[in-house]
Structure formats: C-alpha cells, structure tokens
Amino acid sequence: NDENEIKIVQEGALPPLIKLLQSPVERIQEHAAGALRNLSVNNDNKVKIVIEGALPHLIALLRSRDKRVQVQACQTLQNIAVNDENEVAVVREGGLPPLIALLSSPDEELQEHAAVVVHNLSENAENKVKIVREGGLPPLISLLSCFNLRLLELATAAIMNLATNPENKVRIAQRGGIAPLIGLLSSSNDLVQEQSMGAICQLAMNAENKVKIQQEGALGSIISLLKSPNEQTLIYASEALRHLSMNAQNKEEIERAGALPLLVELLSCPIDEVQEHVAVCLQNLSVNANNKIKIVQVGGLPALIELLRSRNKKVQAQGVVALRNLSVNADNKVYIVDEGALPPLIALLRSQDENIQEQACGTIWSLSVNADNRPRIVQEGGLPSLITLLRHANEKIQELAVLAIRNISTTDENKIKIVRLGGLPPLIGILRSTNMRVVEQAAGTLWSLSVSEENQIKIVQEDGLQLLVSLLRSPNENVVEQAAGCIRNLSMNDENDVKIVREGGLPPLIYLLGYPDPNIQEHAVVTLRNLSVNSDNKVMIVGEGALPPLISLLRSPYERIQEHAVVTLRNLSLNAENEVMIVQEGGLPPLVDLMLTQNERLQEHAVVAIRNLSVNEQNEVDIVAEGALAPIINLLRVPNEDLQEHAAGALANLSSNPMNKIRIVNDGALAPLIALLRSPDELVVEQAVMCMRNLSASPENRARIVSEGALPRLTSLLRSP
C-alpha cells in the first residue's frame, strides 16, 4: 500500500528490517528483503534505505544459497538503483561482482533480476566502465544468444548503454559482441530489434568498428530497418548508416547493398532526426566519385534541394553540404541548377547560421565553375548576396564568396554588373586582410574585373592601386601574381600610367623582372612596356634601374617575355638619354641576337630598337662594332615590308657615319637596298633611298652603286608623285 510504504518508514521500521537481513534464518532474510523491496518502490525510501546502511547486506544476500533470498535482494537493488546517487553507491559497495556472477546463473529468473539491476546501473557514466572492467561483458554478450525474450531485452538494453562509452565500443567488439547483435536485428521482438540497432549504432562511432560491422554482414539488415515502422529503430538505423558511411570502403559497400533509393526516400521523412541522419549519410556517401552519379540517378536531387527549405537548421545544413559534394561532379553542376537549386541556395546566403552560409556559398562557387551556370546565378539574384558576404567577419565565407564572384566575373557583362552593384569597395577592402588565401582571391577577382576599360578607371578611383602595389612585395607568390596581373591590366589605360608610377609601382615592378616565376616576370615586363609609352615614365623607368633586368630578359627562354622586354626597350630608346644608357648597359648584343631569330615579331622589335639607338652618333659606331650590320642587311631580304622598312631605316641612320658607309656596302647591302627601290610600299622605298643617298656621299661607293644597277630605278623615282 502506497501510504503504508511511507508510514512504515516513518515509524522507524528500516533499522530493524536492515538488521534482519543479517539473520541466520534464510526465511527471515527473505521476508526482510521482501519488505525492503516493497518499501523501495517509493522514491524517498530508495534514498533512506541506502542511508540507513542496507546496501552491504543486500549485496551480501546476492550470494545466498537460497534462491528466494537472492530474488528479493535483487529486486530491492533493482528498485534502489533507479536513483542516480544509488547507482553509484551500489557499485561502490561492491555490488557488481555478485550481480555479474548471477548473469551466468543456470536459473533464468535470477539472470533476469540481475540483468535488470545491471541495466539500471549501466545508466551511470562511471559504472559503464566499471561493469566492463569487472567482467560484465562476457555474460551479457552470452545472453544475446539465449531464447528468453525478457533476457534479450535486458541484455541488449545494458549493452546499448555500455556502448556509449568510447572504451567499451572497442571492448564489446573485441569480446565478439557485434555478430550476435547483428543477428538480433531480424528479431521478431520490436524492443530487442530496437535496442540491438541502438547498440550497433553506438558501436559504429568507432573507426575500427565501422569496418568490422560491415565485414560481419550487417549492412543488409540495417538497410532493411530503414523501412521499420518503429520510429526509434528507424532513427538508430539511419544514424548507424550515417556513422558507417564515414569509412571510405563502406561508402561503396552501402551503395552496392542498395541503400541509396531508401535513403533518398527518407529525405522526405517527417521525423527531423531521420532526415538529418539520412542527409549526413548521403553527404558522406557523396564524397565518393561513383556515388555522386548514383545519388542523382536514383532521384536524390529534388529531395536534397527540398531540405534547403526545411525549418530545421541541422537538416538544412546537411542538405546543403550533400549538394556541395555532388556539385563537384561536372554533370551534376548542370543537373543541380536545372532542378531549381539556385533560389533556395541563394536564400541560404542570408541565413543567420554561419555554417549554412558557408556551405551554400561553397556550393554556389562550385556551381559557378560551369560557364553556363554563371549567368543563371546572376539572373536568380545571386550577386547582391555574394557581394554582401565579401564583408562577412568569417574569412572562409569571404573567400568562398570571392571565388564565386571571380568565376562569375569572366563575362564582360558580369564584370560591369559586379562593379555597379558595389563589388569594388569590399573586394579592395579584402586586400588589407592578413589571410593570404582571401587576399589572393580578391586580387584575382580584381584582375578579372580590370579587363574592362571602365573598371580600370574605377579600381584606381576606389583606391585599389596603392594596395595592389603594396601586394607586389608580398612573400606569397600567388598573391604577387594576382596583384601583378591586375596592375598589368590597369596599365593599359593611359590615365593610369602616371598614377602607377606616382604610387611607387616602379621599384617593385622592376624587382619582379628578376622573379623566378615566368608568369610574374611577364606581368611586370608588360606593365613596364605599357608605362614606357609615357614620355616622363621613360626617364623614370631607367632612373629606377630597369635597364639591367630588362636587357637580361632579352635572353629569356620564353619568347613572349623576350618580346615584351624588347618592346619596352624599343619604347625607352626613343628618349635621347636612354639611347646612350641602353648601349652602356650592354643592350646591343642581345638585340643583335634577336635579329637572328626565326621569330619575325622579335626581329622587328629588335631592329626598331636598333634603329632608334642608331640616331646617336656614338651608337652608330658601337652598333656596327657589335656585328649588327649582317643581321640588319639580312632583314632587307625578308618578305615582310615592316621589317624591310625598319632595317632600311636603321641602315639609313648608320650610314650617316663615314666609316659605316664603306662597311655597309662592303657587307653586301647594295643589292637588297636596290631591290627595295621597287617595293610597292612607299615607306620602304623612302628608307632605302635615304640610305642610298647617304652611301652615295662616299666617293668609293658611287661606282659600285652604279655597277649594281641602281641608276634605272633611281631615275624612275625622279618621276615619283
């Protein structure tokens, strides 16, 4: 009687009852333990019985030779152990050894009562370890093979509790607990099935167990339980697959076992926990290249996309990560967008959950790798949200947003849209970050945007130039390349030529001419090429010491770098002071060598540079001394009118020197010069005539000019309009 339970204790019955537990008469022990069993149903009494010191005596009775005494003692401990503090006290008082011994009793009733107590004790975290250390696993695992359903329920419940401890996950597997638990997954008893699945779910968290569970043949049974009408069993089964799918080999085995259709179907399950576990499982499986295809083939995309609209943030997060993984596959990039993923993904860019924002942004970045998706991302309104994320405090989100915008910026239309939507200020702001990965991507995006002439001016107006110039000195090679590429584009705009120099761009650009990376060398030399068109810059570039590295680049193994270097020198050579310095710095030998190459562009730029340098009287002598005559004369014969004009122009300049007049004729220039008098190109004819005029000033050359047959053509030119 409930009221009597309280009154009996209030009247002081506990001390004498506990004393009677020590009676030498087993019948008295039985009744005393039985009375305490009834009294211990009351929650307050559970505590009082322990406080009054009953535990040692009850535990002692577990070893009684009288089964009835053992049963009463077990049942009392069973009631007492429901209390959290008592769970600890029973173990502390030495209750585990006799209880564990009873688990192996030949009497099923005693086994059952002992199993109930052990199950109750296993709720406590410390007890989980102690039960195993005291040898509780072997008898519990042995009970998994019995035919008593009540014992199976208790054993699976206890093992499920014990399996929550990391150490025990290993020990249960070592003791052979996995195989019988797998066998019980097909039990007709719902509770046994549920608890066995729960135990396997716990064991599957251990890396080694993930392999063992699969090797023991559990996948088929677990997958079949994805159809279970029991909600908790379904939760355990989906969670177990979530854990198992983290293993690389299991990713393939789970797919081969036919799990994908059921997992996809469960994405629509009304139980949030199941949705989350299944989404994570698919997320894990989608790391595998083959599974990326199979998940889409079984219709996974619509259901995953629908998860993006879930009110459950965890489900949303797992859905977007799964889509991000799937989007790595080239074909899936198209399918995901075609299935309508962009609107919910773009909406998630505004989520209050940073993880969801990051994953959504990462997915859009991945999708933007496909050129056809870029305009669709813009059409769906993705740009404003991505630009907003450029100011996010989370640098990873910043980086992903920059990467997506960088991809989107590849089209001319989008380059303008990004800037007009306010993309420049945050992109330029990121250049101040200490995170070099983010800086690299921001500089790379500015590089892409700077292809547009309109943007070349705006980037400078938004104070991007100073930051970009400072990045040329970065120790990070990738950052240097992106910044140098952007400045290269900016230098194409005449308005920026002076500003780049004013912002201190020359010293780092000149330094980069000697950089080991040829791409960076090229960016630097092209920028200097563009800057060298400006008259003031011609002087400053040389004054900052650019000539030695530029001349060195004339011997670069890369023809594109050689070309930009020689054009820069060609531009610089238009300045009178530079004419002398280029020769003094050793520019002539490599220029002469370039005239001997088979590349007509290099030949042309080199001979123009020689032509410019030959305006200087001292250079006229030095150029010939360096052996330039032969290659210049050879260029007169090349069937390229530009080359012919510049070669003839160079000879016209050189022929102003009295000594050179003789050398030019002696080296065989007359025949090709006379041939050029018949050129349809007036500029070619003009330079050839000028050279002939200079050569004819020397008495020694006059007879040879006539003997070479120049008179008829010269006479005909008297009639030139």
In short:
The protein has 721 residues and is mostly helical. 73% of the residues lie in helices and 0% in strands.
Description of the structure:
The protein has 53 helices and no strands. It is mostly helical. Helix 47 runs antiparallel to helix 48 (641-654). The longest helix is centred in the first third of the chain and has 14 residues, at 26-39. It starts with a helix and ends with a helix.
How would you describe this structure in keywords?
about 725 residues, mainly alpha
How are the SSEs placed, and which strands pair?
Layout: H1 2-10, H2 14-20, H3 26-39, H4 43-51, H5 55-61, H6 67-80, H7 84-92, H8 96-103, H9 108-121, H10 125-133, H11 137-143, H12 149-162, H13 166-174, H14 178-183, H15 190-203, H16 207-215, H17 219-224, H18 231-244, H19 248-256, H20 259-266, H21 272-285, H22 289-297, H23 300-307, H24 313-326, H25 330-338, H26 342-348, H27 354-367, H28 373-379, H29 382-389, H30 395-408, H31 412-420, H32 424-430, H33 436-449, H34 453-461, H35 464-471, H36 477-490, H37 494-502, H38 506-512, H39 518-531, H40 535-543, H41 547-553, H42 559-572, H43 576-584, H44 588-595, H45 600-613, H46 617-625, H47 629-635, H48 641-654, H49 658-666, H50 670-676, H51 682-695, H52 699-707, H53 711-717
